[in-house]
Design brief:
Blueprint: H1 6-15, H2 29-36, E1 39-43, H3 69-74, H4 78-89, H5 92-100, E2 105-111, H6 132-135, H7 138-151, E3 155-162, H8 185-204, E4 212-216, H9 226-243, E5 249-252, H10 257-266, E6 273-281, H11 285-289, H12 292-300, H13 305-319, E7 323-333, H14 344-359, E8 362-365, H15 380-385, H16 405-418, H17 421-426, H18 436-453, H19 467-473, H20 482-504
Parallel strand pairs: 1-2, 1-8, 2-3, 3-4, 4-5, 5-6, 6-7, 7-8
Family: Belongs to the glycosyl hydrolase 5 (cellulase A) family.
Domain Glycoside hydrolase family: 90-370
Keywords: Glycosidase, Hydrolase
């Protein structure tokens, strides 16, 4: 286990809170670490929101077409079947396995009907109005899941996979009915009520659920018009931020990543707003006709389209105090892409991980487990067993840093002075500068990065992930000189990581 330690929290107040004023829109020290660290995660698919291709058993009494949660709810013995599945799909040993791999976050897909045990009003006027008794037991199980994750040092991203009216065409949006989320305004208004209910219930829980890293407003929405979705996003963010300005909010990009990044950049937000992109390369005709090595090269060649897009979006959102993650990805390739080489799948997974580690604040593999024969494309357990997915994904501490603060500070100050090329470069150009902010930013970035490193209290390392967002929230001065502070901060974080890896993570 690698929980956030109380000893760390005390030191964090001294090192990160040294300005003497509260940082805007940051919650408790513990929750801030969970929310702003680099999220290396996995989806717990088909636990609460069912997908028949992942697990078939809960559908044995479902009503035709037997593909969605509503189909199961309409069938015989629904409550008994569902609760048996909920209680056995993810158990204590699964939490331990995820933690030991070095992952630090799980993304849990939920439906709005899963909240009825906390507030029955979420079902009023919806397709699930008559099934409160079937789903009322989910809420205490969801709370237990969050609490269990915290015992293992794992954050939880709650993803509204199924919204009132259904936001896309897929059965994993809750029903087998046609989608009506965007065609009927009442569904969009009711979804904001659902999200407000979720946030209010989480905040009312005692003790505080510090490991909730955020909520995702909608999974993979298919809007009639992007302007309509963005208008709804803005309304939802406003309401949720009023309830909890420290809670990060995740938005699906509808596979229009740059367009939605521009939306976030142009819309000032109180909360940390994170853009979620999903990446698959196995469905289209182009995917099928592309070999596995070519897919891998297209993700690692800095000049290729996807890496260029990732770099652009990450830089844009970082400067805006927002974030960028890949909320769903896998090692799955169409059989037409496989060349027969033994490392096709392994190299494809490695290419994705390099891309995400370089440009993203987090990534979440889809999915943790799957019934049936081994599937190292979609099932993380199988991918690790087959050597397709690495057996460790986080930095691992091999040497204690206790009592080494003086060495860290000497190294920091030496590197800060060496980084003065920033000043020399910009001095070539006329302008009004605040070069002292670069040095101050470097020191702050280094110190904050080190604070994250030692947060876990175990062998797996927490790393500051949402670097631009954290830097912005550490100061209220975002005037013309902030860019120099941000440049220094980012260089300080990078230098600290290199130093930490060399001194505490090497053999």
């Amino acid at each position: 286990m690698h929980k956030i330690t109380s000893k760390f929290a005390a030191g964090f107040h001294k090192r990160v809170g040294s300005s003497g004023r509260p940082a805007p829109h940051l919650g408790s020290i513990e929750s801030s670490i969970y929310q702003y660290r680099k999220q290396r995660g996995v989806n717990l698919g088909s636990w609460f929101v069912l997908e028949r291709w992942i697990t078939d058993a809960p559908f044995r009494h479902a009503e035709p077409p037997a593909q969605s949660d509503l189909d199961v709810a309409r069938g015989a013995h629904a409550k008994q079947v569902l609760e048996a599945h909920y209680d056995n799909w993810i158990t204590e040993s699964d939490w331990a396995w995820i933690s030991e791999l070095g992952l630090n976050t799980v993304r849990i897909p939920i439906g709005y009907y899963h909240l009825c045990g906390a507030d029955p009003s979420v079902l009023v006027g919806t397709d699930f109005a008559n099934y409160g008794e079937v789903f009322c037991g989910v809420w205490p199980r969801l709370i237990k899941a969050i609490e269990t994750a915290e015992r293992f040092g794992l954050g939880v991203l709650l993803d509204l996979h199924a919204a009132p009216g259904k936001q896309n065409n897929d059965a994993h949006a809750g029903t087998s009915n046609p989608p009506a989320f965007f065609s009927e305004k009442r569904h969009r208004a009711h979804t904001i009520h659902v999200l407000r209910t979720l946030v209010s219930q989480l905040n009312a829980h005692t003790p505080r659920l510090a490991n909730v890293v955020g909520i995702e407003l909608l999974n993979e929405p298919h809007p009639i018009a992007d302007q309509e979705l963005q208008k709804w996003y803005s309304a939802a963010i406003k309401d949720i931020s009023a309830l909890d300005p420290a809670l990060p909010i995740y938005l699906s990009d509808c596979w229009k990543t740059e367009q939605y990044a521009e939306y976030i950049k142009s819309t000032p937000q109180q909360s940390l707003v994170v853009l979620d992109h999903h990446l698959c390369r196995c469905f289209t005709a182009s995917d099928i006709s592309t070999t596995a090595p070519a897919h891998a090269r297209a993700l690692t060649d800095a000049g290729a389209q996807t890496p260029r897009m990732f770099a652009h979006v990450a830089e844009m959102l970082d400067a805006a105090g927002a974030g960028f993650v890949v909320g769903e990805w896998s090692g799955a390739l169409n059989p037409g892409s496989l060349t027969g080489a033994p490392d096709d799948a392994k190299n494809y997974v490695a290419a994705q991980l390099r891309l995400y580690e370089t440009h993203c604040a987090g990534n979440f593999f889809w999915t943790y487990k799957k019934q049936g024969g081994p599937d190292h494309g979609w099932c993380l357990r199988d991918a690790v067993a087959a050597g397709v997915f690495p057996s460790q994904v986080a930095l691992v501490v091999t040497k204690s840093g206790e009592g080494d603060r003086e060495r860290q500070m000497r190294t920091r100050d030496t590197l800060k002075d060496a980084a003065s090329e920033h000043i020399a470069y910009w001095s070539q150009f006329p302008g009004k500068y605040e070069h002292a902010r670069f040095a101050d930013g470097f020191v702050q970035g280094w110190d904050d990065a080190y604070s994250f490193f030692f947060a876990s209290g175990g062998r797996h390392v927490s790393e500051l992930g949402f670097v631009g967002a954290w830097a912005r929230r550490k100061t209220k001065d975002h005037g013309p000189g902030f860019w120099e502070s941000l440049h220094g901060f980012k260089q300080g974080v990078a230098a600290a990581r290199k130093d930490f890896q060399e001194f505490y993570c090497s053999g």
